[in-house]
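Database export, one record per block. Field names are fixed; values are copied verbatim from the stored entry.
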Amino acid sequence: MSGFKFSKYVPPKNAAKHGFEQLNDIFKQLILMTSGNVSEALSWLTNLDKEYKLTNDTYGIGDFIQDLKDKGFIKEDAQKGTLSLTAKSEQEIRKSALEEIFGKLKKSKKGNHTTTTRGLGDEKSTDSRAFRFGDNLGQISITESIKNAQVNHGLDDFHLTEEDLEIVENEHKAQTSTVLMIDISHSMILYGEDRITPAKKVAMALAELITKNYKKDTLDIIVFGNDAWQIEIKDLPYLEVGPYHTNTIAGLELAMDLLRRRKNPNKQIFMITDGKPTCMKVGIKYYKNSFGLDSKIINKTLNLAAQCRKIHIPVTTFMIATDPYLREFIQDFTKVNNGSAYYSGLQGLGSLVFEDYRKNRKKHF
């Protein structure tokens, strides 16, 4: 009699692989905190190893660094004696951010933003109907049409008529263009709290989500301090806070300019900030006021919020601060724009951004 013999499973020893994965997870976190400085991140990792015994006799920090080179995660400039990230490593960091922030949430079906209308689209639905003159021939369901012909005319005298044709309707898919604004003013690292690293993680996770799951959507990323400028997705790990004030006006103007170039009707702005607008440009000079809410700056900011509303661009603000007077400003800004606002701690920021992005996918602005 044949059968199976079961015994206790002992997994094969592979300390090197386990050691690399464990250290790489920590290394990717440190890379974000050091704004892409590989040497500094490895120095921090070495200090952590000394304190917490992350490695053992069979796999040490030197082995890990060599593995990073061999696997194509970092490259060395022999002449300058410096280490830097590769494109492969930048993508790995974005994937890691996506898994960390969105990993526990249900994955979305690949595609774009569904609307309730029917007609010519790019995704087949489960709805079908009889053929009508003018229908696209590509929508004809061959299987169902042949089945109808067999039922209507029998197998002995098989022929296919117009009345037998059945159409599978397509769903319209709405393309959405998003601009993500990230505050890089000095307050993002003040008071012993690192706010820029979680903001970078959220940006990378959102970028990875859109580029992989919603390929017809667009995502532009803006940073704003004294001025505002656009950055590429690959630049996110290297993003640093500067000695800047908060020129929200410049950020909104650039975001609106980018969205005007997009041809689809669904547009939105996400803004991650921890403070009030404190700066604006007047001619070639900067007008700055870090104390209180300056009416000159605030009124200009609210005017832009109203302009966004007029051209159907909602602004969702993620305020990672809890000061009452800041809440009052955001409430006024949101009311004028008819947008949304969240007052979030750093822990829940990623989930809020993700949920609001998914919610906005389901409606036309």
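Remark 1: The radius of gyration is 27 Å.
Remark 2: Confidence is low (pLDDT under 50) at residues 104-123.
End of record.
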